[in-house]
Amino acid sequence: MKSLFIALALLAMPTSSFAMSCSARHKVCLNVCDTQYAKRPGCTSYCAEALPVCMSTGCWKTPQTNKCGYSKG
User: Fold this and answer.
1) What pLDDT sits at residue 54?
2) pLDDT tens digit sequence for 17-48
3) I need a labelling partner for 58 at 20 to 30 A (CA). Which of 4, 25, 26, 68 fits?
């Protein structure tokens, strides 16, 4: 149930127009986890899993989102 809550929370997570690189998108993800879901440690695991995928494909892929167009930096 906790994983479902985290998944739904990340689905609603805003993306920043400044997050043009995978590294920047990763920082946005971690910041949202820290500020809005600090009591949900699983939140950051989605960020950690999405970063290497983004670095190789340019797509930010989590269970809730699959957005491409990020630079691989």
Assistant:
1) 95
2) 455 899 999 998 898 888 888 777 788 899 99
3) 4
Number of structural domains in the chain: 1
Q: Letter for the amino acid at 67?
A: K
Cβ neighbours of 37 (radius 10 Å): 17
Q: How far is CA 72 from CA 8, 17, 22, 51, in A?
A: 26, 16, 6, 10
In-domain check, residue 73? no
What pTM did the predictor assign?
0.69
- DSSP label of 38: T
Q: What is the largest CA-CA distance in the chain?
A: 34
> Residue 33 falls within a domain, yes or no?
yes
Q: Give dist(CA 3, CA 19) in Å, integer.
A: 25
